Amino acid sequence: MTVVGAAIAAAFALQGCAPTGYNAADYGNAAEPAAENVAATAGATADPAATADPVAEADPNATEGPGDPNAAPELSAEESTDSLTGTKVARMGKVVVNDEGFVLYRFDKDGNNPAKSNCVGDCAETWPPALTDDGKPTLKGVDSKLVGTVARADGTKQLTLKGWPLYTYVGDKKPGAWKGQNVNGTWFVIQPDGAKNLTCLPKVSKPVAPPKDDSAGDSGAGSGGDSDAGSDYSY
User: Fold this and answer.
1) pTM for the complete prediction?
2) Contact call for residues 33 and 200 (beta carbons, < 8 A)
3) Percentage of the chain with pLDDT > 70?
4) Could you tell me which residue, 18 or 91, shows the higher pLDDT?
5) Which long-range contacts (CB under 8 A, 24 or more apart) does 185-189 make?
6) DSSP letter at 54?
């Protein structure tokens, strides 16, 4: 009975923490909420001490980084992130979404002082960077003083929040989803103040494989396809 009770409790904890329409396998069949009653308090946030960053303001050098800004290719409408909106989603609370409503993330292996993106190659296929032409997205619920850009190695500009480069996640199939939370223990939903949102913290999971490159056939990088099955990629 004890084992059964524990399993039921774990199932309820997962449902209260994971995004709507979650796949239990994505979260290791358990979850570790960082706050109690998360499902009942959608706007709850984690302990400020746990989410605060050491730098209180945006780094003045946040626009500096690798690559040549003058060589940045012009982005298509689909590639450009035109707005950043601070809002709330069920079970997670405070988030930032792009113009299509997809939740944005930050990566622990990046830098924010100065800003630097270390997600390239297959990583950038799985975690598409929030790119910009002019670094001036429409803002709502986000302080303009915290928004900047960083030059990526390919010359494109990526939006930053409090110095942290911003990304979406291909594992999120619809606006408002946040299956990228705690992937590899290094990816986290970002709050409007640039801090990690730890309100809901599923167990560490693996990232989905990069989208399949049809031109590469069925072998090589990205051959795993856009699947929900966890991959062994390290990013």
Assistant:
1) 0.70
2) yes
3) 61
4) 91
5) 185/108, 186/107, 186/108, 186/109, 186/235, 187/105, 187/106, 187/107, 187/108, 187/127, 188/105, 188/106, 188/108, 189/92, 189/95, 189/103, 189/104, 189/105
6) S
Residue 133, domain extent = 2-205
* Distance (Å) of CA 17 to CA 31, 71, 160: 7, 43, 27
Distances (CA, A) of 131 to 2, 26, 106, 219: 50, 27, 14, 28
Of residues 169 and 35, the one with the higher pLDDT is 169
Determine, yes or no, domain membership for 177: yes
Neighbours of 137 (CB within 10 A): 22
HSE-CB at 81 with a 13 A cutoff on CA atoms is 29
Number of domains in the chain: 1
Q: Any bridge partners for residue 148, and if so which?
A: 160
Amino acid at 68: D
Please tell me what DSSP assigns to residue 69. G
> Residues 225-235: what's their mean pLDDT?
57
Residue 233 belongs to a domain: no
Distance, CA of 27 to chain centre: 16
